[in-house]
Fold this protein.
Amino acid sequence: MAEKIRIKKGFNIPLAGAPSSIVTDDRLTSVFAISPDDFPGPVWKAVVKTDDKVNAGDPLLIDKASGKICLVSPVSGKVIDVHRGERRHIEYISVAKDSENGAVIISSEDSKNVKDQILRSGLWAMMRQRPFDVVPDPGVAPRDIFVTAFDSAPLAGELLSDDLKKWLEEGLKVLSTLTSGKVYLGIKPDSGITSNVAEVYEFEGPHPAGNVGTQIAAIKPVNKGETVWTIDAASAAKIGKLVKTGEIDLTATVAITGPDVKDPHLVRTLIGASIDSLLKDALVKEEGVRIISGNVLTGIRVQKNGFLHYPYRQITVIDEGEDADEFMGWASVNPGKFSVKRSFPAFLRGFSKPFHFDARIKGGHRAMILSGEYDKVFPFDIYPEFLLKAIMAKDIDKMEKLGIYEVAPEDFALPEFVDTSKIELQKTVREGLDYLRKELS
């Protein structure tokens, strides 16, 4: 029986546009892309060039250090662009599909052992290592592996589809062979998910209850000198399917969400699908909207001609707010105006009714205010303001003492949302982790 853990600190943002349970198939997307920036840690090297023919599951990029970690093509077709930015940095590799994909079977040469299979399939890059929140080093054995089976982010759909649930236990068995420690599985109440391999914990409470960092902090925090790996349950199930059948599952069930979507729903597609195809005829209006690959807290802003980014499971569309014209501006007492701090009358109606948020920051940058506002939504046993100040000062000793090894940028998404000072906390944490990793390497 799963042990129950109640998360008390957090907040569920009442954003309009939750998806229905209806799932449609993506029959429009013909171009897919993989961005190496979605997979921090390794230095990636392209192994294809423009106009090369590739099959689904063929490597597009490999890590320079070991040459073993692969990012693979989701479709069979022709490479149409190895897009480079400043200093020839690879921003993405796009592939035009030329036929319907069949089952992607990994060759027997790559099936010598489980780790080689996962590395070759591209599924290894779906895992993350703590500390540093990077793709795991295959040469380092983790203390434990943590798997989360639900996503509590705003408007998130179901993380584990019915066709993948049957492979989850197999995936957990595979993961258990990669660590001398334990595999922990975090589930939501009444999910019906059980395991004979992993230790199962049931998490109840507001977001970020579904974040794997929150679950690690509640079960067994990461200390200096320790390494743990994290992965979502869908990717874990795909690993089980890979090892059992040899098939690489590159599908993605994407939630099309947000107040500017006509009919929020789920779409079954492949990783790296083009945004334009997924949103065709789906928007309330074509101009003045912000398209986010991911959720509103941690997602990446993309253009309509862009592509779906890791973790490949959500698109959110909200209004830019450029044409907003409120009576009395910031001093407005409009009952439809949201505030966590009860600064407006909207709190009287409760937060059960969704709000139509837009992309305006509604504030300006200022010094960090030590008011304890982060603590109300930050369910870690650390002091977030002091950790952030240590990161900004690049004080490694203080960073270590204040818990830098436990956190990832997504853990600071809610504090960034409620922050009076409008500081980019996630960016600060990412820079701090990269700096610490570089200094300690």
Summary: The chain has nine helices and 19 strands. The mean pLDDT is 92.
